[in-house]
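FAQ: What does the model actually see?

It sees only this:
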Amino acid sequence: MEDVKGTVCVTGGTEFIASMLIKRLLEEGYSVRTTARPDTENKRDLSFVTNLPGAAEKLKIFGADLNDPHSFDAAIKGSKGVFLVATPVDFQNKEPQEIVTEREISGTLGILKSCLKSKTVKRVVYTSSLATVVHNGQDSDMMDESFWSDVDFIREKETPNFSSYSISKTLTERAALEFVAEHGVDVVTLIPGLFVGPFICPKFPGSVHISLALLLGTCYLLLISFLRKGAKGRYDCSSCTMSLQKLSGFLGGKYPQFPISTPESLAEIKGRKNPGLPS
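And it is asked to produce this:
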């Protein structure tokens, strides 16, 4: 099959966002290299990506791990673009926050160094999180890309389940942007909210499980940011802010056969109101 668009690399290809991005890239005519944690015993079933249309001719899977940043060299070599999607998520706090953060920073900077070494990568798209923007104690109804979460505030105010993730994502994005400013790598960072929509990975995505809503097309944001000339810096990608009450009204109207709590029954639930984010 003719290589129409060239070769790109997607890290973390067995996960929700990355696998859907691979599907879209193959449909667009790209040759795709993706990474997965090494599986020496070949016990992992990757047929959900290897059986995608075009995958037999245009998809290659490489073993790589953030604990060994150099393991990404082979997948990145010869690629013209890299989608840095892989990230460690530990909402159960199985590891200390410092270890999670050190691994993510080291892995991310290692991948960026591999991009420099390749001499072929023209752009890197890094998937960040709204957790890098909204946790700062500022009283604002709307926060754009100029806002940053405050690590000290997170440590003091956030619940343990989310503080490790928020701190690691914030410090990693800052480290990545500092690196590219020094070395001149063309990097775009995307700041999405909760990713929801269809999926092909066998594991039920946590964000879909949380939301139980189908807001389609999220993976296309990554492809747009790769293609658009002049894209630079951070981009909020959260066009829809939905309260718990609005979500229950939406789901109740769309799926009346399910016993979904009514907006009225949820009115008394109290919690911090997060600011809106532009898109």
